[in-house]
Automatic annotation (TrEMBL):
Domain TnsA endonuclease N-terminal: 49-98
Designated name of the protein: TnsA endonuclease N terminal
Keyword vocabulary terms for this entry: Endonuclease, Hydrolase, Nuclease
A GO MF term: endonuclease activity
Length: 215
């Protein structure tokens, strides 16, 4: 089964187009208000260190240029590391994120959120839409609910003794698997159990290796 298609609806109170993306971490839909937010959500969903993701989670008060304002972050990420503060993300186009006014405003927001016990991070399109990273994630997400047996996981893991690395095609041939069995390897890559060079496009020739501590 593939991740459900993104469903778009119109907000009756504004001209914005809002979308909902399915999250396997949350076993439900998470809202976004731009395709840039949607793309950043994909990065969050694929981050193994993140336990939970929330869209537009809370609203906070902060003071900027002598006036009080209200701020609602785009996303909140809670981490498996109990010592790490929850992170609130703001997603902006590069020309907005790099403007002096926005940076000044962000500094005020960051200081206010620190007092509430949050980390505040701004992400722009240059980081979010790096290629082939984003295309790889969009491809691998379709295998997020693939089932791989414990026996198959162990066979794959044991093939990488002594720090070896192999391409996906070699692993298929090693186990006598068919083309359809690539889905198992793609699932392990999505889960972060198999690591690869993010600057390379996912293909059968892609070299992978096991992530430390993931098995």
């Amino acid at each position: 089964m593939l991740i459900p298609s993104i469903r778009k609806i119109h907000n009756v109170n504004s001209s914005k187009v809002i979308g909902m993306s399915y999250s396997f971490k949350m076993a439900g839909l998470i809202p976004w208000e731009s395709t840039l937010e949607r793309d950043w959500l994909l990065h969050l969903e694929s981050n193994l260190a993140i336990r939970e993701i929330y869209g537009q989670p809370e609203t906070f008060d902060y003071c900027f240029q002598g006036k009080w304002h209200r701020y609602t972050p785009d996303f909140k990420a809670c981490w498996y590391d109990p010592h790490r503060l929850p992170t609130l993300y703001e997603v902006k186009p590069h020309d907005v994120a790099s403007s002096d006014l926005f940076r000044q405003q962000s500094d005020c927001i960051r200081q206010a959120l620190a007092m509430y016990g949050y980390e505040y991070v701004v992400k722009d399109e240059y980081e979010i839409r790096r290629q082939p990273v984003l295309n790889n994630l969009n491809f691998l997400k379709h295998y997020a609910d693939m089932f791989v047996s414990r026996q198959d996981r162990d066979r794959i893991h044991y093939a990488f003794d002594d720090g070896k690395t192999f391409c996906l095609q070699w692993l298929l041939e090693q186990f006598g698997w068919h083309k359809t069995d690539l889905a198992k390897l793609y699932y392990l890559m999505w889960r972060g159990w198999l690591v690869y060079d993010e600057h390379r496009v996912v293909s059968r020739s892609l070299v992978v290796w096991p992530a430390k501590g993931a098995w």
